[in-house]
Write a structure and sequence with these properties.
mainly alpha; 24 helices; single chain; two-stranded antiparallel sheet; about 475 residues
């Protein structure tokens, strides 16, 4: 156990050097990549300006304050400074070792006790990661895709104030996909892609099923190559935990808190479970839950369904398989929180010509803004209390409850509509949308909005009826 604890705590000095080196290295890569973009000078200058604005805005948002997630990062830094093992000392460290190592380096540069500088360093790193992602989008897809990704409110709110690490995992995943997306990759590109996919998993397991999905994607190469790819990707993930796997207590912590991580978001707070609950009688819903042995069993059933669906998509050789995976993951998730809206943003940016993409950006941005863990709460808490029929209500509670749920479910519906667009076009969704009448397009927009809005509002309408007619239910009283 002693050896495991010593290895588990990386050198804070090395972490500090890594943090300091990350910024000039990233700046050099960004400058070189911008110079080599096959675009006119005006577009390059606009993209460079957007990068500067994006980074500055995210750092500024981080300076406003911090939420519970950043508070957890402070705890990670303090525990590492005390020489403790994150996988045994606490039960809310759900990442690979990279993130703990990184925040310990940030903690040496800016002590959490010095105000929001600790938070601003983390936001700066995530903002630079987003800038690198944007350059990749501009290089391999389009200049507008990079601009949409950089300047969307989702990125500002999640990478800036909320400071979630998902964007780093998505950057590594996108890098992995770009190495093999054309099919029949050279051995060097194949192994580079596999390592990047494994590093993405080691950061956060958004792409947990994607290497397995590529087993069925024949453009990757022969079956032997596909098997080696999956083995290498998952091997990198396992290798990142090697210092902890030799100790039984540490190994149990990794298995419980990382591999079998369960989100703190309540099960069923998503589009599909909500629709099933409204469509099925209460007795049928209860019976279905008993069959899958409660929420945990339902999540396992969902993972099997997700793996099967992605395998089918891979077998059909869809061109934009990576983006289909992200959309499918978000659309079908049995539980979803405001920070999850960043997952489909890559797809929404690449498919920027589609009206479904703009709908998603709009509703996802509001979902992130209204969340109690984001900057919208500073606005809502400053508003006066509402007084209705002798009862008082906090605006912040109303926005973080029914409003956030409405925007989340509608953003899932928009992501689902965007996924259907890709499936109908067999992956060629980067082409302009078909010419249709304005009335027809507005009807489609209304239908997608209703698909997310009705399931979100029905439970609240039922509660309001019970409250005002029977006096039995109180909704967010002061």
């Amino acid at each position: 156990m002693r050896g495991a604890v010593q290895i588990a705590m990386p050198s804070s000095i090395a972490a500090e050097v890594f943090v300091l080196a990350a910024f000039p290295c990233s700046a050099a890569v960004l400058c070189r990549a911008l110079a080599r973009l096959p675009s006119e000078s005006r577009k390059k200058n606009l993209l460079a300006a957007a990068i500067v604005i994006s980074i500055a805005a995210k750092i500024a948002l981080a300076g406003i304050g911090h939420n519970n997630d950043v508070g957890c990062y402070i705890d990670y830094n303090n525990l590492i400074a005390q020489g403790k093992n994150l996988y045994t000392a606490i039960d809310y460290y759900n990442y690979g070792p990279f993130w703990g190592w990184f925040v310990s380096g940030v903690g040496r540069l800016a002590s959490p006790a010095s105000g929001e500088r600790f938070h601003m360093w983390i936001a700066a790193f995530l903002a630079v990661s987003d800038a690198l992602t944007a350059v990749l989008l501009a290089r391999f897809y389009s200049w507008p895709a990079a601009m949409v990704f950089l300047l969307s409110p989702v990125g500002f709110l999640i990478s800036g104030y909320h400071s979630q690490i998902e964007t780093v995992a998505l950057l590594l995943g996108l890098t992995a996909w770009l190495q093999v997306r054309k099919g029949n990759p050279r051995p060097r590109a194949l192994w580079t892609s596999a390592v990047c996919a494994g590093l993405s998993l080691a950061v956060k397991h958004i792409l947990a099923l994607f290497p397995m999905c590529l087993l069925f994607w024949r453009p990757l190469g022969r079956l032997r190559d596909r098997l080696l790819y999956a083995a290498a990707a998952y091997g990198v993930l396992v290798a990142s935990f090697l210092p902890w796997l030799g100790d039984p207590v540490s190994r149990a912590g990794v298995v419980k808190h990382v591999l079998f991580y369960r989100s703190g978001t309540a099960w069923g707070t998503a589009w599909l479970p909500t629709v099933f609950t409204l469509a099925l009688p209460a007795s049928a819903s209860a019976a279905l839950l008993r069959i899958v042995h409660g929420p945990s069993g339902a999540e396992e059933l969902w993972l099997v369904g997700l793996a099967t669906a992605t395998a089918v998509l891979a077998h059909k050789r869809f061109e934009h398989l990576f983006f289909l995976y992200l959309l499918l993951l978000f659309t079908t998730a049995p539980q979803v929180g405001p920070s999850y809206v960043v997952v489909p943003m890559l797809a929404a940016a690449v498919l920027w010509r589609c009206w479904e993409s703009w709908m998603f950006v709009f509703f996802a941005g509001w979902a992130a803004f209204c969340n109690t863990d984001n900057v919208g709460m500073f606005v809502f808490r400053a508003l006066p209390t509402l007084h209705v029929h002798g009862h008082s209500y906090y605006v912040a509670d109303l926005m973080s409850g029914p409003a956030t749920r409405l925007f989340l479910l509608t953003s899932q519906a928009c992501a689902g509509a965007l996924m259907i667009r890709l499936l109908r076009r067999r992956g060629s969704g980067v082409t302009p949308s078909e010419t249709v009448r304005i009335r027809t397009r507005l009807g489609r927009v209304a239908a997608v909005a209703a698909a997310g809005g009705v399931p979100a509002l029905v439970p609240w309408a039922q509660a309001l009826i019970a409250h005002y007619h029977y006096g039995k239910v109180m909704i967010f009283p002061q």
